[in-house]
Design brief:
The complex is a heterodimer of chains A (about 80) and B (about 400). By secondary structure, chain A is mainly α. Chain A has 3 helices and no strands. In chain A, helix 1 packs across helix 2. Chain A is globular, with a radius of gyration of 11 Å. The relative contact order of chain A is 0.20. By secondary structure, chain B is an alpha+beta fold. In chain B, helix 4 runs antiparallel to helix 6 and helix 6 runs antiparallel to helix 7. Chain B is globular and about 80 Å long. The two termini of chain B are about 40 Å apart. Classes of the chains: A mainly alpha (about 80), B alpha+beta (about 400). Chains A and B meet through helix 2 of A and helix 6 and helix 12 of B.
């Protein structure tokens, strides 16, 4: 899953660093993720994983690292 | 003022300053495009520049709602004075809410109480396309000091401020949106004015472009990332305090329209003048605007007083959308209301020397949709609505 997230970040995140080499806990905002780009990342993740992020997840903390994004997707896909 | 739902003596002080000091000087402030010095001096004397500083540090310990009422009270008499006051309080709120634990900033807040320092905001910059959340300039650290140079496209009351709060990239190798907020002190900066402020309205905010060169101690850089400061404090305080200043302008314009309709009614007792219908319409619009502004101020104050300071909600997309909607709707509502007041007062409203003059309100009101352009805000909202479900 983390590789899919990386690919989406690479395509839509417009980061100032290479998403393929980013540490899982690296701060994506410090890597240049803007709020506008994060919307595109969310849309791509929703399409790729066939999920919808509920509004309670639409906040900075959920999209701040590869690990936190994975955590959110796992929560949505395990049918909880 | 009939709309201050408070018995706060601090709000009463601001109201008095509006009536006795800001109002009588408003025409010359506008005509000469000069800083509303008399009003700001009176606000300092009343210790209102430290209104938001907590009582434990010597301030008045006012909350957002009291600040809102002060802005409204000032806005009814001099919109430039209200805007300067609002912008200063936004800066103080950023420091209180995000650096209130730092020993340097606690001392600084005590100094604001003692000396009533006026703080200006330096968020604009050439080359970022008006996007507050991007910077070109950077905090350049050297040992325990930093230097910071910025080509600002506008600094409101820059030449009249004591200290400045400046956004910049966290370090020279940080991306454009990884920003810090730094305080720079009068003795440590130079401002080279780089243009003029000759505008249609809001002429007393004196907001020309400047080139800033500054240095400071590292302790003057707030530790909280600017992204959080913006979401949790700067944006909500800006939209709420601006909206309240605009509400003051709208209230004053409607008061003039009311007075005009009354004189018409007195001229022909027994008949309701045609303008009264338009007044009924505009009074309803004002009520909607007021409800909108009060609702969001109350919500912000409630959120910020929670044990977690409301950070979860304040950083959500839904809340950002709501704040943006308040800004767009009140700024549009303001110019719409004022324009209708002009129609009611007719040629007497169009004349600058009439007691029913609406011209200054109209010119000032037109700034509201442009200071953070509503189209930019709509574009942001459009993007957020792609993912917000609101269900």
């Amino acid at each position: 899953m983390i590789e899919d997230i990386r690919t989406i970040l690479k395509e839509h995140g417009r980061l100032s660093v290479d998403a393929t080499t980013l540490a899982e806990d690296a701060d994506l905002y410090q890597a240049g993720l803007t709020s506008h780009a994060s919307v595109n990342v969310m849309l791509a993740l929703e399409g790729k994983f066939d999920i919808e992020f509920p509004d309670r997840m639409l906040k900075r903390g959920v999209f701040e690292s590869l690990a936190s994004i994975r955590g959110a997707i796992e929560e949505l896909t395990t049918g909880s | 003022m009939t709309n201050n739902q408070t018995d706060s003596r601090h709000v009463a002080a601001a109201t008095r300053i509006g009536i006795e000091v800001a109002g009588p000087n408003a025409r010359s402030v506008d005509r000469d495009s000069r800083f509303p010095k008399e009003a700001l001096d009176a606000l300092k004397e009343a210790r209102l520049l430290s209104a938001f500083v907590p009582k434990e540090l010597g301030g008045l310990g006012c909350g957002m709602i009291e600040l809102s009422q002060m802005c409204q009270a000032l806005g009814a008499h001099c919109s430039s004075a209200a805007m300067v006051f609002a912008m200063h309080q936004i800066q103080v709120a950023c420091i209180v809410r995000h650096a209130g634990q730092s020993s340097f900033f606690r001392d600084y807040l005590r100094e604001i109480v003692e000396k009533q320092n006026l703080i200006a905001s330096v968020t604009s910059e050439a080359g970022v396309g008006g996007e507050m959340r991007n910077s070109v300039c950077a905090v350049e650290r050297q040992d325990e000091r930093f230097s910071l140079s910025k080509d600002a496209t506008t600094i409101s009351y820059g030449a009249h401020a004591d200290d400045l709060l400046v956004t910049a990239r966290r370090s020279p190798d940080a991306p454009a949106n990884d920003q810090s907020l730094a305080l720079v002190r009068k003795a440590d900066y130079t401002l080279e004015v780089n243009g003029v402020w000759d505008t249609l309205g809001m002429r007393g905010t004196c907001s020309p472009p400047f080139k800033l060169r500054s240095t400071g101690a590292l302790a003057q850089v707030l530790e909280t990332p600017f992204a959080d400061i913006a979401a949790h404090t700067m944006v909500p305080f800006s939209h709420v305090l601006w909206a309240n200043s605009w509400l003051g302008i709208a209230t004053a314009a409607v008061s003039r329209a009311r007075a005009f309709v009354r004189t018409q009614a007195r001229a022909k007792p027994g008949t309701t003048p045609p303008s009264a219908l338009r007044l009924a319409e505009v009074a309803g619009m004002l009520q909607t605007m007021r409800a909108n502004v009060h609702d969001v101020a109350a919500e912000c104050e409630e959120l910020m007083s929670r044990p977690d300071a409301g950070t979860e909600v304040l950083s959500s997309i839904a809340f950002a959308l709501k704040m943006n909607n308040v800004k767009v709707s009140t700024s549009q509502g303001l110019s719409d209301i004022v324009h209708r007041c002009l129609s009611i007062c007719g040629i007497m409203g169009y004349k600058n020397d009439s007691k029913f003059s609406i011209g200054l309100y109209l010119r000032d009101s037109l700034s509201a949709a442009l200071m953070v352009n509503n189209d930019r805000i709509y574009a942001t909202n459009a993007s957020m609505l792609l993912v917000l479900k609101d269900d």
